[in-house]
Amino acid sequence: MNYANRLSNVSVLGAAGKMGSGILLLMSQELYDLSKQPENNELNFSLNAIDISTEALQGILKYIEKQSRKAAERKPENIRKYFSESNLTEEEMTEQYVKGVLGIIHPSTDLMDATKSTLVFEAASEDKDLKIKLLSEINKNSNLFPWFFTNTSSIPIHFIDEQAGLNGRVLGFHFYNPPAVQRLVELITTENTDALLVETAHQVAKRLRKVIVPSNDVAGFIGNGHFMRDALFAISEVERLTSDLGFVKSLYAVNSVSQKFLIRPMGIFQLCDYVGNDVVQFILKVMNPYIEKEDLHSDLLDRFVDAGIKGGQNPDGSQKNGFLKYESGRITGVYDFEKGEYVDLDSIKSEVNEFLGPLPENYKPWKEIIRDQEKENLLTTIFSALKNLNTPGAQLAIKYALQSKEIGLNLVKDKVANSAEDVNKVLLTGFYHAYGPVNEYFD
Ligand SMILES: NC(=O)c1ccc[n+]([C@@H]2O[C@H](COP(=O)([O-])OP(=O)(O)OC[C@H]3O[C@@H](n4cnc5c(N)ncnc54)[C@H](O)[C@@H]3O)[C@@H](O)[C@H]2O)c1
């Protein structure tokens, strides 16, 4: 079966979710493109968008419509090739294109529709029993020996393979959020994974213009393997600082150090809020039983989630309050657990900044560094200056950076990543860091 045949009937499970809707968008455009190639004239391309609520699926169709129109309007040259033999106007081409993309999608709440597919993208909720049930039911009821690309963030692929009885017809195709924008895909295979699946996974990634980083089949893989430990370290630093500074100022201090001093796009607690504290807690829970030598768990995180302080996004994409409070995307407060309310950032900011001390000389924020041709030299200069500062902020930043490096090196040592370069690539492309954690800036 060639690539186009394999992709002529695709299903996305969890299509109304955050990740599923993005995967659906990418695959609808890919299937549309394949359908327009003359050699595929005989094929009837179909994309099943499967989820549990019809209403949510209708909403997703609107999302696909809006995004496809936007993509066509932004880059009309990308769709012109489909209409080269017609004399349609640009607006007419856009409408035809959007109609064509939507025409490929079949929204459905019936899992059995996936039994017609030869390739299934699984992006249902992160629940191992649910994923195993969905995949094994499709597998049992299909006579097409379907291939499964799961988007699980933490469940080992060999476990899914064994439990769902897939005989190596599954791999981890771990998109980052949002799938249509983020370039990174972590590709997780097992000893059992059929080589043809791996070849096709590379082909899909290449056609979607994604960067593949291979990760070995260890719970959490590379991205969450680093992120979860980074977050747990940050929490332990907050707990350490609390006796001197109090909880609220400590939390803000560690967030500031991890963003400003380390020149990252977001502070660690802002990142947890972005992902959702309940999601972070959930990933830790899934990973923990598989990682024998560590306890990947935080009581503090549990307390926040239990109190409903979860972060995540509102339906309009705006940030919900979590560890931190947000107004128009800006941090304006920090949650005080004792008071059960947010403390105004302005009331603590100067004291925290005074405690941390100044940023190093020639400092540049992440936004500027990331675009600078001289990025490496600038980082060397800034972090050398940081090492000479000897302030609490600089000390914490160095400790944090060295811990992040240690996490990266351990991912290689524990055979999660094949190399330090792969760890760095995941943090650079999936988390938009300006530099990888395995570096020599802080030694
Ligand atoms: N959100 C992220 O940042 C992110 C990043 C990478 C990977 N992932 C992974 O992607 C997967 C989906 O995560 P998400 O954030 O999109 O979650 P989500 O909650 O937004 O979406 C999950 C979807 O699965 C659907 N679902 C639940 N039960 C179902 C069933 N029986 N049949 C069909 N659909 C069902 C839900 O209705 C929902 O629409 C998870 O495995 C997650 O770990 C998430």
Would you kindly provide a brief summary of this structure?
The chain has 443 residues and is of the alpha/beta class.
CATH architecture of the largest domain: 3-Layer(aba) Sandwich
Strand content of the residues, in percent?
A: 5-15%
* Distance linking N and C termini: 52 Å
Question: What coarse outline follows from CA principal-axis ratios?
Answer: globular
Low-confidence stretches: none
What's the CATH class of the largest domain, please? Alpha Beta
Order of helices and strands: HEHEHHHEEHEHEEHEHHHHHEEEHHHHH
Number of helical elements: 18
Structure, explained:
There is one protein chain. The protein has helices at 3-6, 18-35, 54-74, 76-80, 90-104, 128-141, 157-164, 195-207, 221-245, 247-261, 268-275, 277-287, 299-306, 349-356, 366-369, 375-389, 392-413, 420-430, and strands at residues 9-13, 46-50, 105-108, 119-122, 147-150, 170-175, 184-188, 211-215, 324-327, 330-336, 341-344. With 443 residues, the chain is α/β, with parallel strands linked by helices. It folds into two domains: 3-215, Rossmann fold; 222-430, N-(1-d-carboxylethyl)-l-norvaline Dehydrogenase, domain 2 (Orthogonal Bundle). Helix 2 (18-35) links the parallel strand 1 (9-13) and strand 2. Helix 2 packs across helix 5 and helix 11 (268-275) packs across helix 12. The model has no long low-confidence stretch (mean pLDDT 95). The chain binds nicotinamide-adenine-dinucleotide (NAD). Residues 13-14, 16-20, 50-52, 123-126, 130, 134, 151-153, 174-177, 275 line the site of nicotinamide-adenine-dinucleotide (NAD).
